[in-house]
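[Structure tokenization] protein backbone as discrete codes
[Encoding] learned vocabulary of local backbone shapes
[Protein] chain in single-letter code, fold in tokens
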Amino acid sequence: MLWYAALVAAVAAERGAELVVALRNARWSLARGGVETGRGHYPAMVALHTGLLAGCLLEVTLGGRPFVPALGWPMLGVALGAQGLRWWCVRALGRRWNTRVIVVPGLPLATGGPYRLLRHPNYAAVVAEGLALPLVHTAWVTALVFTALNAALLTVRVRCEEAALEAGAAAVGVRP
């Protein structure tokens, strides 16, 4: 259990690093006329992702969930792969990457890195991590609850992001 707590703590530290990058990038975007949308769902997203980390630890501790190697090792690989995909997204978007929806009108859509393969690869990383991280230590209730709530949240988030990208493109007369 101690190593699993260390893994969850490492993911929490990674999330902290994301927030540092996001804050720096938000300042850059807003200074260039960026427009933020979706503020209403952002607190729910923060709460859900915090709940994922807490749920992993609580379910394993209070529920006595065992480590099952046949499940745990592959899920650890998926969770680590999700981190790699997330940081590939950060690198591909550069200063445009953010945890918030901020669009700088006139900037082209990203088409490099994972964005040449998927429209929203960062959300694929979130889905994979939300399922895999709890299952590393058989916290299946946390995996199910997070996945269901995240599906609802991502429905709102992707619609918000698509509308923001379309509005940003329309502001300069291009099509996203």
Summary: The chain is about 70% helix and 5% strand. The radius of gyration is 17 Å. Residues 10 and 94 are 23 Å apart (CA to CA). The domain at 2-171 is CATH 1.20.120.1630 (Four Helix Bundle (Hemerythrin (Met), subunit A)).
